[in-house]
Amino acid sequence: MRKIILKILTRLPTKYISNGLILIIILFIYGIVGSYFIMGLNLIDSIYYSVITMATVGYGDYTPHTGIQKIFATTLALGGVALLAYVFNIILANFQEKMRKFSKGARTLKAINEMEDYYIICGFGRVGKVVFDELMQRNQNVIVIDKDKEICDSIEESDRVVVINDDAIEDDLVAKLAGEKCRSVIICTGDDVDNLFIVLTIRETNPDAWIVSRASKLDNVKRLKKAGADKIVSPEIIGGQDLYYESVKPHVLRITVKHTVDEIYDEFKIISDNGCTLESIEYHIPGIETPFTRKIKTMNLLDGQKYVNYLNTHDDQRQALNNLYKTVNNIHSHLISGPDKSTFNKLLKELEKQEEIIGIDLTNKEIAEITAKEIK
């Protein structure tokens, strides 16, 4: 029972302390007036009698005799006991709560100091939880900051996870944590204004911090960039791209090929002449599943001509590309979108004459097995 009462008291707002003190003053005034008119005491004795009765001291020098006097003394004593106990418990509960927060804050600070490198997640909503899960799968150290106490209580802390129940925009907490040991600050609250404020606060004191921010609205992408965010991710853009790729999936082809740098233009000319778009190029490092991807998104032959001219006039860039091709043994994949399957069939026949086609719509795992054989 005591634990239940203490739990209830700790949840009471601090304002109830003030309300309790006001009620004590009202009861004290009631005691003085009642003592003066009911008990028949003078002003000084009325104050004295009210104090000792409310405090249940009861020296016995003033004793109620009539019924009304006894009722008055009883109500004054019960009211005093109840209110004094109420206020005392509220003060004690608030003190315990502050001490608990202070103790937890000290433990949190110690845990952060012991972390070598960590990521900071501001906001633990749907997006923040996905980011958190990805980091956990990679055994990273994470500091989660969220103003919702229930959300913070739902996150299990460990040697790699520190949870701070605080509003990231209220003070410079995030800016202090985004120091040398911080790998990245990931801001994913649902409010772009809050995200913008956090970016500005961090960038003001940590010019070298790597900041990734969520943008709920496309209009705010430029604002977050100007504020100092290194990368901005918009669910609207990502969602739109996913919808596009899903809608054109029947007309998207992944071709894994093998050719040299000198054959780049001829290959792109075939793609462009067939009215197809080169969406991206994926370079497959031998034996590694995840490829290195470069987005292209063009079907304009002029773009291909400009790129070849650039390579022909910049020997260092051409050499860098040659080195990349050597690293992947000239094996890479193209994601190509086109109008229909008949166009793809024609495209494949023309490409077969130009270069070696290793496979169509192969998975990353299948390609990794092929590239692994290339280095044996």
Structural account:
With 376 residues, this protein is of the alpha/beta class. It folds into three domains: 2-107, Helix Hairpins (Orthogonal Bundle), CATH 1.10.287.70; 115-238, NAD(P)-binding Rossmann-like Domain (Rossmann fold), CATH 3.40.50.720; 251-374, Histidine-containing Protein, Chain: A. Helices cover 56% and strands 16% of the residues. The protein has helices at 2-10, 15-37, 43-54, 67-114, 126-137, 149-154, 173-177, 192-205, 221-227, 235-247, 264-273, 301-313, 315-327, 341-354, 364-374, and strands at residues 118-122, 142-146, 161-165, 182-187, 211-214, 231-233, 252-258, 277-283, 292-298, 331-337, 356-360. The strands form two sheets. Strands 3-2-1-4-5-6 form a six-stranded parallel beta sheet, with helices on both faces. A five-stranded antiparallel beta sheet has the order 9-8-10-7-11, covered by helices on one side.
| Class from helix and strand fractions | alpha/beta
The percent range for strand residues is 15-25%
Q: What can be said about the biggest beta sheet?
A: 6 strands, parallel
Count helical runs.
Answer: 15
- Which geometry do the CA atoms define? rod-shaped
Strand order of the largest sheet: 3-2-1-4-5-6
Indicate how many domains the architecture comprises: 3
CATH superfamily of the largest domain: NAD(P)-binding Rossmann-like Domain
What is the average of the pLDDT values? 83
Radius of gyration: 36 Å
Helix content: 55-70%
- The arrangement of helices and strands along the chain is HHHHEHEHEHEHEHEHEHEEHHEHEH
**What's the CATH architecture of the largest domain?**
3-Layer(aba) Sandwich
